[in-house]
Amino acid sequence: MLRLLIIWAAILGCCHGQSEVSRRNSRLRVMSPPELEGTYGCASTDFGFPQHGGSMTGVVVYPRRNTMACTSFDDFGISLRSRPAGALPVILLVDRGGYLQYRLKPSAYVQTAEAIRRCPVSVCGASLKYMRLRLDDSLPHPYPRMDAGENLRIAVGDALNSDKVRNGQKAGAAAVLLVDQITQPLFTVDKSESSQATNDLQDVTIPSALITRSLGNSLKKAIDNGDLVNVNFNWGESRLYPDERAEYEFWTNSNDECGPKCDSQVDFLKRFKGVAQTLEKKGYTQFTPHYITWHCPESYQNSKMCRSQCINYGRYCAPDPEQHRYDGCDVVVQKLHQLCVFKVAKRTGKPWLWWDYVTHFAIRCSMKEMNYSKRCADRVIESLGLNQKEVDMCVGDPSADEENPALKAEQDTQIGKGSHSDITMLPTLVINNRQYRGKLEKGAVLRALCASFQENNKPSVCSNEEEDIQTNQCLDNNGGCWQDMAANVTACKDTSTGTVCECPVLQGVKYIGDGYNDCKAPMYQDWQPIKIRNTHTYSSYLEYLRHIRCSNRICKLCEEHGMKVVSVTSLVLALAIV
């Protein structure tokens, strides 16, 4: 049997995603029953994908069994899917769990894990991974060392928040409200213990929020009294800045070999580039990229690990890439290059060139192809028409025993301030100073940005993302792609996701190459000229002309066909109509 509670509420700023801790307290407004009217605090959970700018109204259900949602509701014969037509969605109210206090014996300090083994606690699922440890009133710490006589608080019945919400989702809930069983500030912690656990969060698609113990008890009491209240989740939390421009930042990585997470970041950058550049050029947004580094403890600066993973004498470090000969210090240097490219591009009034740089670098300078180097980065910078000397000055000397101003500023920015929580995970997207909590996909991120604007002031790309994409980006430095000026041929193409560099197809002949440094026409047996505007090429002579200069015999042959030789390149024989 289920107990029902219908409440009106507006959850302001409960935005969801994949960071470790949500420091941002949101507001829950209860509008009825009368005795519960008022505004309460809530905290966003770190998973689930809301519709930014949208809202949800539903009926809250509190189950008599499996109140902690530790296991599947199917085991208790509970289903929330069977509702009459027109009924409101179900919002599930579940308990988050409590704790027992265990005092360590007066002996030498022990590891918390040992204390857990000695403490007979019945835990949800009988699994240690579901325990939450608290030292008095401090925040959870994984297996800390404790001195004799200290109180150890062990959370019981506290499955991972994501497991609770997942069980609610499988039962048919449209959203979940988690009731904290500990009187404490609203922090939601759900750090994954493995990469598999992090990937499992992707299948949790419904929104959820944590409410206080006192509010939860009040709601349960209202349920017992038979009160009916409606609940409304509102994700219109994005606030436009005073200059009517959405501001967002993306914490990313230059490492392209860290598994599926790196692959998804690169894919997002490629797909979102066109939208991002259009919004930036038209003044709708202000974008800033960021990069996470850490410093090596001073006592370990001469260790092998710090020397391989850090630059500037242990001040800025990154982990080694997976399964490649590159070190963490190589990753930090490329992070610094990308950061400096943005700074130089911004000073020239073209900050959107950062998107071209990172996407071109990912293709041309990959670790897999063993091109992850400064030399390759310099070629990309040159192809985009950026000032190489200014970039080098910003990068400085990675081997010097000194601070790098750009990376030092990044480390300072990692520390949360106000509603901006600490940045600890990659990737992290922040929109209008609020962490974005949703899928890292073009459409989802665009919707979150568009939620910043009033309906009468939204960019047209918000209504039709294919409609308003710039179609002339190849005019700016040829998009950083290969071109043959003499033959008037380019590898740059404008698409709905921005420019791409692909060797051209001319009259059925596909040029071969990477599209950035080189494109070559293949050898053909026919002598049919391929018309390129007012010039022609003889494909059968291309390979031959790579090794010889234009001889009188070739020139005479050209003249017999009514052509005059204009120039000879390593790729084409350019001819003009006489």
UniProtKB/TrEMBL annotation:
It is found in: Endomembrane system; Membrane. Keywords: Glycoprotein, Membrane, Repeat, Signal, Transmembrane, Transmembrane helix. Residues 247-450 form the Vacuolar sorting receptor thioredoxin-like domain. Signal peptide: none annotated. GO terms for cellular component: endomembrane system; membrane. Pfam families: PA (PF02225), VSR_TRX (PF25011). The keyword Transport does not apply. It is a single-pass membrane protein; Single-pass type I membrane protein. PANTHER family: PROTEASE-ASSOCIATED DOMAIN-CONTAINING PROTEIN (PTHR22702), PROTEASE-ASSOCIATED DOMAIN-CONTAINING PROTEIN 1 (PTHR22702:SF1). This is Uncharacterized protein. It comes from Triticum urartu (Red wild einkorn).
